[in-house]
Design goal:
Elements lengths: L2 H30 L16 H17 L3 H4 L13 E4 L2 E4 L16 H10 L1 E2 L3 E2 L6 H4 L4 H12 L12 E2 L9 H8 L12 H12 L3 H4 L17 E3 L2 E3 L4 H6 L4 H10 L1 E2 L2 E2 L5 H6 L6 H12 L16 H13 L1 H4 L25 H9 L4 E2 L5 E2 L11 H14 L9 H12 L2
Antiparallel strand pairs: 1-2, 2-5, 3-4, 6-7, 8-9, 10-11
Helix pairs in contact: 1-7, 2-6, 4-6, 8-13, 11-13, 14-17, 17-18
């Protein structure tokens, strides 16, 4: 068989596979898309002004806690419900959709049941499967009362007449009916969560469902579903490391409930600052959440664990670590201090910063190379800009500096090599 015949047969096989996905996906849709939804918790046709105001207030809190604006805001105008934010995935690029009450471009024609199906089951009206970049695998446990409140709030917002941008997905992921099979295999099943009866249950609901923290912090399986056996165990996503959020790991990196509460509220704590993918979480979500909810999240994540930084045996001083110290004194100490003490409201402390404690040097290398923009955080906190040093440091010097910081403040072995630095840079630049 010559190359052209093999290519032709490969194309035929791919076509058959794609057709099978469509057919089987369609069969699954037919059997599941029109399934029942939990009954509404309010009669929308007979609602008092007082009740509507309470639902409106609750809906705003759901919108904030679920971090809807992070994906559904316009990256150009900032309009909060207009959509347009790009989400780059290995399968292609998706764009946040218009969720304003626009009848032409948004969800103005949707019912509260339609919103529930989309949020909790990944199914838009017209039996249209949503891509799981919309985190319905986490939202599946959302209460019907929260969806009803969110619907009231969304419908009360001004319509934004901005058309949606179509996904740019690679074949075969561009075949939307095939998502039904993914849902059949990977989407969690079960009834919505009951209303939380205590602070820890509320924290679990906020972290795992509304806050969908696992979408970034949980490792993925080969089918790109969350590996729930390793829930919140840490994951590399979009060229950065989203750290392990399990209680023991948090405590070993020096976190306390109070530090975590401060971090969620202001974006800053002795352990670090919200940057990279976490800054939009602060900007759109945690900075606006109620104090009781932030306390519940901190309590759930820490589970009463006390901060105990795990110390590793310090390696002997070597020429490379001495070079790392010289680089640190020359480039970093002016802002961060010789002993890593930092400057309040200006430059980060490094002696308690957890970035050097992560199992991968990915974030540390990226921050040193790329720098950080000036940030107005929340509740009066801010951080000055940090320059990047990509043009000043070779891979060898970068490895020495990273090893010095990981050894001194990360309590880890200084074993990062120039080759690992090159790999980290390649990973970061591919996103």
């Amino acid at each position: 068989m010559d190359k052209s015949q093999r290519s032709k047969r490969g194309m035929i096989a791919a076509g058959i596979a794609a057709a099978a996905v469509v057919v089987l996906g369609g069969m699954y849709i037919a059997g599941s898309a029109s399934g029942s939804v939990p009954p509404a918790t309010v009669d929308f046709a007979d609602i008092s002004a007082e009740q509507k105001q309470k639902l409106f207030d609750r809906g705003l809190q759901v919108f904030r806690a679920a971090d809807c604006a992070a994906c559904h805001s316009s990256p150009t105008t900032g309009a909060e419900l207009a959509g347009g934010t790009a989400m780059v995935t290995p399968m292609g690029t998706l764009y946040g959709t218009n969720i304003s009450p626009s009848k032409e471009h948004g969800i103005g024609k949707w019912s509260a049941d339609d919103l529930y199906r989309a949020v909790a089951r990944g199914m838009a009206p017209g039996r249209k499967n949503l891509y799981p970049a919309m985190p319905y695998a986490s939202y599946h446990d959302i209460t019907r009362a929260d969806v009803d409140a969110l619907w009231v709030w969304l419908q009360a917002q001004p319509a934004v007449e901005v058309p949606n941008r179509e996904p740019e997905m690679h074949f075969p992921f561009s075949i939307r009916p095939g998502l039904a099979l993914w849902n059949a295999l990977e989407r969690p099943a079960g009834a919505p969560a009951p209303e939380a009866s205590n602070s820890l249950e509320r924290g679990a609901y906020l972290v795992n469902t509304l806050g969908h923290c696992g979408e970034c912090h949980t490792p993925r399986t080969s089918s790109f579903a969350m590996d729930l056996k390793q829930s919140l165990a840490g994951n590399v996503i979009e060229g950065a490391y989203a750290p392990d959020l399990r209680p023991k790991a948090m405590a070993e990196r020096g976190w306390s409930e109070q530090d975590l509460l401060q971090f969620l509220r202001t974006g800053l704590s002795p352990q670090g600052v919200m940057t990279m993918g976490m800054f939009p979480v602060l900007q759109h979500s945690s900075a606006h959440m109620e104090e009781a909810d932030l306390k519940a999240m901190a309590a759930y994540l820490m589970q009463s664990e006390k901060p105990v930084v795990k110390l590793a045996a310090e390696a002997p001083q070597t020429p490379t670590s001495a070079n790392g110290e010289r680089i640190y004194i020359g480039l970093c100490a002016g802002c961060h201090g010789v002993d890593g003490q930092g400057q309040p409201h200006s430059s980060l402390r490094l002696d308690t910063n957890t970035t050097a404690m992560f199992p991968t040097p990915l974030n540390l290398v990226r921050v040193i190379r790329e720098g950080l923009p000036e940030r107005d955080l929340a509740h009066g906190e801010r951080m000055q800009a940090m320059p990047g040093f990509a043009d000043q440091l070779s891979h060898e010097d970068m490895a020495d500096l990273v090893n010095y910081m990981r050894l001194r403040w990360g309590r880890q072995k200084g074993d990062v090599t120039p080759a690992q630095v090159a790999d980290v840079i390649k990973t970061a630049e591919s996103h």
